[in-house]
Amino acid sequence: MSLMGTTRDQDGRAPALELAGVTKIYGGQPPVPALRGVSFTVRHGELVAIVGPSGSGKTTLLHVMGTLERPTDGLLRIDGVDAAGLDDRQLAALRARSIGFVFQQFFLAEHSTAVENVANGLLYAGVEVGERRRRAADALDRVGLAHRRDFRPTKMSGGERQRVAIARALVGRPAIVLADEPTGNLDSATGASILDLLRELNAEGATIIMITHDGDLAARLLRQLHVLDGRIISDTDSGSPADSGAPAGSDASGGSGVPAGSGAPAGSGVPAGSGVPAGSGVPAGSGVPAGSGVPAGSGVPAGSGVPAGSGVPGGSGVPAGSGAPGGSGAPGGSGAPGGSGAPGGSGAPRGSGALGGLGEVE
Ligand SMILES: Nc1ncnc2c1ncn2[C@@H]1O[C@H](COP(=O)(O)OP(=O)(O)OP(=O)(O)O)[C@@H](O)[C@H]1O
Ligand SMILES: [Mg+2]
To answer: pTM of this prediction?
Structure first.
């Protein structure tokens, strides 16, 4: 297998996600190394919890996995396809087809009804409007909110809003669901019902990666990745060759669950443990290049299904004045603070390559 070759599941399928030596440094004074050499693999059909203290890099990791933020360095493959080889439109298409997001703050459009919010999840999937609404209604039914279809988020409880956000993430039947604290701020009964819902979806085949602060909840899942200070410090996946994360001083491409041969790209080896030196030359605005594919001012993170004006993560086309979740982004129009890579409305992260060869992920 070549150094850059993807690893395969036993059935010959490429993993849903592969990260090798992924670093993310937010620019600014001083630069913030949010991810310091993260490597792991998620197979199709897994249900994985990401746990770790506040500020440890969980949301950043989720955004990188979802291609909403570009890594500063390292390799990201989605279903065997190197995300760096895709241009913005291709990434947007990949997100629209394959990835559903549940954001840390729900990012529902307040002026739109539940069904409209969910239907927006199909905006980039090339589905005509009537069909979007039908599917949205089905998805709301699925999360137990048929009776709230025509309610606006402002008239809904936190748990109901969270379920709308989940319905929006699911309406396109994505192969991969990335959920940032989907049970955060919910009472334990509602949180448990959200978890049950995610498990059901997982049982139907979706690969689900869920950030949670809730240790009890995480303990109910088969696999937990523990994040601390931008590193994976443990991975309970018994199927991975290593589960101890990247200890200080270790090579970033090894030791945290990426099978040998998956190969971090040359130059990706920011040594975990060395941290990334302050002032290490991350170019200003490196997170999102000029000329990314989403029309300036559209304010829509192509493919993420989040409507304009509702707010999206940094690096993904943040609409003006929208704010950004988890402190990870910049309000649109402000450009990137200190080069953190989140110019408003600039759309999807980098890439320049061919979508050709990207198989259907579903
Ligand atoms: N856009 C940004 N610019 C600069 N620093 C950022 C940005 N986004 C996040 N950070 C920093 O990166 C680190 C990781 O942030 P991240 O949001 O990933 O943490 P988290 O583990 O999700 O925390 P929480 O549990 O509080 O949501 C933090 O130190 C944070 O301050
Ligand atoms: Mg977070």
So the answer is: 0.70
Q: Which ligand is nearest to the CA of 35?
A: 1
Domain ranges of the chain: 17-271+302-339
Tell me if 103 CB under 6 Å of ligand 1: no
Q: How does pLDDT run along the chain (362 residues), one tens digit per residue?
A: 334 466 676 678 899 999 999 999 999 889 999 999 999 999 999 999 999 999 999 999 999 999 999 999 999 999 999 999 999 999 988 888 899 999 878 889 999 999 999 999 888 778 899 999 999 999 999 888 999 999 999 999 988 998 999 999 989 889 999 999 988 877 788 788 888 888 988 998 999 999 998 888 888 888 999 999 999 999 998 554 333 333 333 333 333 333 333 333 333 322 332 222 322 222 232 232 222 222 232 333 555 666 544 444 433 333 333 333 333 333 332 222 333 333 322 233 333 222 323 333 33
How far the first Cα of the chain sits from its last, in Å, is 25
DSSP helix/strand/coil, 141: helix
Rounded to the nearest angstrom, the distance between the alpha carbon of 362 and the centre of ligand 1 is 30
Return the ligand 1 atom nearest residue 53 CA: 25
Could you give phi then psi for residue 203, rounded to 5 degrees? -65, -25
Dihedral sign of CA atoms 172, 174, 179, 184 in order: positive
The closest-lying atom of ligand 1 relative to the alpha carbon of residue 213 is 25
Give, for ligand 1, the residue of 212, 328, 340 to mutate: max count of ligand atoms closer than 8 Å to Cβ. 328
Q: Is 154 in the pocket of ligand 1 (CB under 6 A)?
A: no
- Ligand 1 atom index nearest CA of 28: 4
Comparing C-alpha atoms, which of 33, 61, 112 is closest to residue 227? 61
**CATH code reported for the domain at 17-271+302-339:** 3.40.50.300
Give the dihedral of Cα atoms 197, 203, 206, 211; nearest 10 deg: 50
Which DSSP symbol is given to 117? H
Q: Spell out the residues 6+ positions from residue 45 whose beta carbon is closer than 8 angstroms to its own.
A: 16, 202, 205, 206, 207
Helix intervals (H) in 26-176: 58-65, 88-98, 114-119, 129-142, 158-170
